[in-house]
Amino acid sequence: MFNEAIEMVKKSNLIYVSAHINPDGDAIGSTFAVYFALKKLGKDVHVVMPSYSEVFEFLPGVEDRVDGIKEDKYDLLIALDSSDHSRLAISDDEYERAEKVIMLDHHQIARPYGDFRYINDNKSSASEIAYLFIKELGVEFDSNIATLLYTGIMTDTGSFNYSNTSSDTLRVTAELVDYGAKTVEVCKKLNDTIKESKLKLLAKSIDNMEVFYDGKVRYTYVDYPTINSLGIHDEDAEGMTNYLRSVEGTEVAVYVRGKSDGSLKVSMRSNGNVDISKIAISFGGGGHPRAAGYTMQDEIEVGKEKLIKAIGEML
Ligand code: AMP
Ligand code: MN
Ligand code: MN
What we know:
- It contains twelve helices and eleven strands.
- By secondary structure, it is α/β, with parallel strands linked by helices.
- It folds into two domains: 3-190, inorganic pyrophosphatase (n-terminal core) (Alpha-Beta Complex); 196-314, Diaminopimelate Epimerase, Chain A, domain 1.
- The chain has a six-stranded mixed β-sheet with strand order 6-7-8-9-11-10, sandwiched between helices. A five-stranded parallel β-sheet has the order 2-1-3-4-5.
- It is globular and about 55 Å long.
- Bound molecules: adenosine monophosphate (AMP) and manganese (II) ion (2 copies).
- One manganese (II) ion (MN) is lined by residues 20, 24, 26-27, 81.
């Protein structure tokens, strides 16, 4: 499956690994798993990744990340979980510094880039793909690699609850458990722990919730000054959308938040009847049928009106 990519790895010594901006559990898990695997092959590897939620700080290897690359030329870039070149957490200049590029992704709508592409939206996550890639590389799995890949699969499948959880996903996961994935710790840190500030953000987002179309659509907006006053960083302000979606009768949930750079980030979740990736794409973003997002270009009231109308047309 990855023959050509394996050849590229074999020929490379200096490699950097990266994923999409606003890195989530899958981006972080798949990237650092590949990082460890390449190091085991004796490669010189750098991980380029912007800062992310501190909830992921317990993961092995993450302290090794760098904000930007140092070398002028790299033999290879391995890009994970990023459907689009422009969503990568590296600049165009940094991208150009790689001799070859390998793209591994699982998004439904992808704009392929690089010299080798493996894009499969039947896979739950980039981490599930990274598992297959690492296996083909012939690297022996260890507890660190297993914990990282497990984290990516668990977070992208909503703890094995979403429809992207296939029997293959579960078989891969079973193997990761055999390789020593720290499943209890991952669950405790990511599913069972919430900061008080985030609980207060949840209260705000519920307070601000608006209901449209007989309860089929739930929308909330929290502005940046509010998020900032709670002492929450951009990367920790996520995760409110699922609460809204879980309300009975909801088809689509929307959470908009202000960011420190003045932009508005739209996060959407669907219960399955509305393909929200289409809506996100129409506003310049992307994602999956049930989880999608974009950066709002209009000011909030205008942007909200356009979005609610677009969702209404899909109900
Ligand atoms: P989020 O609501 O931030 O968790 O995003 C859900 C999904 O939507 C992500 O997994 C991405 O695939 C996609 N997504 C979010 N924001 C954007 C964006 N600005 N451009 C493209 N895709 C996005
Ligand atoms: Mn992701
Ligand atoms: Mn993913």
